[in-house]
Amino acid sequence: MPLFFQEAAVMNDSIAGMITQATYFAASVLFILGLKSLTRPDSARRGMQQAAVGMLLAVIGTLLNQHILTYQWILIGLVVGAAAGWPMAMKIEMTAMPQFIAFSHAFGAIAATLVGVVEYRELGRTGELTHGLAGALGFEVLFGALTVTGSFMAFGKLQELITGRPITFKGQNFFNVALIGVAFLSFAWLIYQPDAQWAFYTVVGLALFLGISMVLPIGGGDMPVVISLLNSYAGLAAAATGFAIGNNVLIIAGALEGAGGFILSVIMSKAMNRSFGNVIFGAFGAPPAAAGAKGPAKEPKSISAEDAATQLAYASSVVVIPGYGMAVAQAQHVCRELADLIEANGGAVKYAIHPVAGRMPGHLNVILAEAGIDYGALMTDVDDANRVLKDADIAIVVGGNDIVNPDAENEKSSPLYGMPIFRPWTAKVTYVIKRGKGVGFSGVENPLFTLDTTRMIYGDAKGALGTLVKEIKALSEGH
Amino acid sequence: MTLIMQLYVFILAGFVGFLVIGKVPPLLHTPLMSATNAISGISLVGAIVAAGGQYGRASTVLGLIAVISAATNVVAGFLITDRMLGMFKHPTGGESKGGKH
């Protein structure tokens, strides 16, 4: 049986082949339009539903493929996959979205990697393996396998199955570079000698290993960059699959995801004022170079929930700055309740969302949207938010730390220096809701807490906000 | 299809990706990622051919696992994207239906 995988070449002549190609073309267009719809929140949902239709068309078109001899395994696979995916997607908490995405990346990458292995075996058997195909297959399994283990590691860290702290050992970077070197040598040999099976499987094995060792040293707070990178790699694996089987819709979809993941990684790195290389090799958040010798530490002042509630009830402008702590505590609903009360008393509430707040790009936006908070109240631009903060009566930092650390602007020796941050201290008062007196994920002290206009409210985000809600309600009932 | 044609498609699609996705507001970065993730589940197409081509038992097993993984990716990816996008409410209240043109 000739040329199984070079579908396009064989199939263009038959009617079925033309239909298949037409569905692929339609899917490609719908995918691009779907992503374009994401530039506006009010068109996004419809556009992505159309993209889903595109996917369905492509699957139906593929089932017409004349190389398919038996449908039973395909149907079983589709049913099992859909039955697994459906409840997961309907039940998952918005808080757990980063884990979910990591998991989903891993699954897509498993598919790409296995398709690569099957193709390599078949093409090898029929003797159709060219240098070009070997190269495409090599890329496919390299990025695929890397994404599989990398995503599972990221999943484990986010789910706290393994520690979110960076895991480092001496000579780690050297070890990784050596690993990459050997992988690339094997890859080069595979292109030169396409039927060298050992080279192919060495690439697979090393890539699996590399995925683990690359994510190992990366801390929880750097996850937005890692997830974006894995997103990009998953796309490249899909695109390489397209090269290997001569299928344009895979190349297009893969290129789109590759570009998207890359853009997001760049945005995330910029929001932390760090380079890619620094995130990957820096192991930030490892033993913090003790920020000692800073003079006598001031004690932060705290405030009772009752006093805070009184001030909030009469505030005319409040800005909430949420961090990952809000997500962890599932405090978004009670936060909305608080905002509703302030608004009922005539105040305005806005939210300042830092690009790297949470564990993946845009994480906190989704969490607040889940609570039914109007997206018009979400400020996602740091400069815009700082302009609003200047005129605000009260800024409330909920479960965030590094994104409001003034050292990022003032202290050249701080590891956060240069990172764009919010300036809650420009508001009249700042409340910081915080679980304890510890430092943020980066291990850096935050001088915001000891400023004269800052008041601490200790407690977990949900409990503390809940108490504030209760106090404000009691106030209004008192009148 | 020759390699060079494939490269054209890849590069052009990449440019389209950069231009289009670069304009997605930070507000929707999470749905963006789940959307591109769902779309790249298109590897399903390759998995289907691998599982149904009767290339021998080992290939069929690998193909089956690939179909299950890719189908999970696609179904979960599109559903969660839809669920998230449904949460972004229009400022005037109610479902986001696109009020002005």
Terminal CA distance of chain A reads 85 Å
The ordered string of helix (H) and strand (E) elements of chain A is HHHHHHHHHHHHEHHEHEHEHEEH
Rg from Cα of chain B: 18 Å
Total number of beta strands of chain A? 6
Quaternary assembly: heterodimer
Report the mean per-residue pLDDT of chain B as an integer.
Answer: 88
Average residue pLDDT of chain A: 88
Structural class by SSE content of chain B: mainly alpha
Short characterization:
The complex is a heterodimer of chains A (479) and B (101). Chain A has 479 residues and is of the alpha/beta class.
Describe the structure.
The complex is a heterodimer of chains A (479) and B (101). Chain A contains 18 helices and six strands. Chain A has 479 residues and is of the alpha/beta class. Chain A folds into two domains: 7-282, no CATH class; 305-478, 3-Layer(aba) Sandwich (Rossmann fold). Chain A has a six-stranded parallel sheet, sandwiched between helices. In chain A, β2, α15 and β3 (378-379) form a beta-alpha-beta unit. Chain A is elongated and about 80 Å long. Mean pLDDT of chain A is 88; it is low at 284-295. Chain B has a domain at 29-87. In chain B, 70% of the residues lie in helices and 0% in strands. Chain B is built from four helices and no strands. The longest helix of chain B is centred in the C-terminal third of the chain and has 31 residues, at 57-87. The radius of gyration of chain B is 18 Å and the shape is flat. Chain B starts with a helix and ends in a 14-residue tail after the last helix. Mean pLDDT of chain B is 88; it is low at 93-101. The chains are: A alpha/beta (479), B mainly alpha (101).
